[in-house]
Amino acid sequence: MSAVSDIKSVAVPAQEMQKQKEYTQLVRAIVEQRFTDAPKAFVHTYGCQGNVSDGERLKGMLEEMGYLMTDELEGADLVLYNTCAIREHAEDRVFGNVGALKAMKNANREMKILLCGCMMQQEWVVEKIKKSYPFVDIVFGTHVIHRLPEFLYYNLRGGKKIREYPECDGVIAEELPVHRDSDFKAWIPIMYGCNNFCAYCIVPYVRGRERSRDPKVIIDEAKQLISQGYKEITLLGQNVNSYGKHPDYGMNFAALLRELNSIEGDFIIRFMTSHPKDCTFELLDTMAECKKVAKHLHLPFQSGSNRVLGEMNRRYTREKYLELLNYAYKVMPELSVTSDVIVGFPGETYEEFKETVTLVEEAKFTSMYTFIFSSREGTKASKMPDPVSREEKGRWFRELLDAQEKIAAKRTASMVGKTYRVLCESVSKNGFIEGRTEGNIIIEFPADKSVIGSFREVTVTESLTWILRGELN
Rounded mean pLDDT of 121-133? Predict the structure, then answer.
């Protein structure tokens, strides 16, 4: 599939979606016959916000099939792990947790175990599941999530093991039911897949090529959520700012933001993740001009060394990245920027790592997601010589964290005494209400739980490096 895709070639046909609705009713009939009370389904998602969004759709389908969602693994009649393949640690956790299910399966032979997501789109993983975890009932990849009713029907009816992970450039399945995990914060995927093939990244291999959803569908979904009282809409994609390349759309990402910003209501728009090579001045100007678009930009830079960026196939330079950042701060002086960085990419020297540290010091990020390089089978980087030890990379990692902590402490200290509008999200472990600023910074403050789900004005009274304390106005 080319970068510019035919809409009809990626959309799951209406007749296929209708067939899945029929399977849904067949599963529901089986469930109602076998269980006196609604069976319980435990769904756990690993990884990124895109996976979380997929998880909400998986839950929605299960609910329509007659299952009741539960947060307790014990006693669940169905366990579904929605997996992530970005880092080795995430995969190890999945294998460990699946192994722990064997005893539960032995105690309850009727319990169903399902695995899906990015890990399951890799043949070597599926083969390992077959060999080491034969008690798993259903395994399916990222391109067939919409077929969950079909898979579950055939397994419930005859005990058939399902292993479905077709190779394809990716699809878009609309009209799936959604179980929203929050009453006031919602994810809206606007595109799927990636065309970038960064040397370290498995995403293009497990998620397919870039494909954008119809803007009319996105806008209608946003309008519906806002009419239901949702206060925060987060647009999702492996690379949101490459949205809308199909000529029929007539709308790039900046134009989509403007359309969403024009919807009536009191809400905030967020988005992630952006790629620097596709981040434009037009997009930054749009962010500055749209009042409902959060002044927060997550813009992964990964390395401060041009040589390493070239080896990563990132297709921008340190200078280009800083040019974008400087322009962003110019048009949005209060902008909060967060980023991703990889420490110890194969062949990286300490001197090149220090270039990453100096970029961090110049960029003054609000926070960073920092990772030591994790080799992914099937990527270009997995075949590169990697002479630096894990221990040495760990020392670099701590040095980078120390540098960022000093920057973050200075930034949060500058916020003391100022008042911010926050979306009240939850109760913290120490009993405070946690609110998130437009810049994606958490402020804790004493208040009644009734404020959760609403916007409030909070004055910062204390800074604690990564979070703030404040008082409700």
Answer: 96
* Predicted TM-score (pTM) of this structure: 0.94
> Average pLDDT of the chain?
95
Query: Which of 414, 396, 248 is CA-nearest to residue 308?
Result: 396
CB 49 within 8 A of CB 190: no
Per-residue pLDDT tens digits for 10-30? 899 999 999 999 999 999 999
In sequence order, what DSSP letters do the residues of 209-275 get, joined into one string? Answer: S-EEPPHHHHHHHHHHHHHTT--EEEEE-TTGGG---STTT---HHHHHHHHHTSSSS-EEEEE---
Q: Is 209 exposed, middle or buried (0-12, 13-18, 19+ CB in 10 A)?
A: middle
Closest CA to 238 of 276, 275, 287: 275
Domain boundaries, the chain: 11-164, 185-413, 419-472
pLDDT digits (tens, 9 = 90+) for 222-267: 999 999 999 999 999 999 999 988 767 789 999 999 999 999 999 9
Q: What class is the 185-413 domain? A: alpha beta
Buried residues in 1-31 as b, exposed as e (16+ CB within 10 A):
beeebeeeebbbeeeeeeebeebbebbbeeb
DSSP string, 163-195: EE----S--B--S-----S-SSEEEEE-EE--S
Per-residue pLDDT tens over the stretch 320-378: 999 999 999 999 999 999 999 999 999 999 999 999 999 999 999 999 999 999 999 99
* Amino acid present at 335: L
What residues contact residue 391 under an 8 Å CB cut-off, 6+ apart? none
Homologous superfamily in CATH for domain 11-164:
Methylthiotransferase, N-terminal domain (3.40.50.12160)
Positive/negative CA dihedral, 444, 450, 453, 454: negative
Say whether domain 419-472 belongs to CATH 2.40.50.140.
Answer: yes
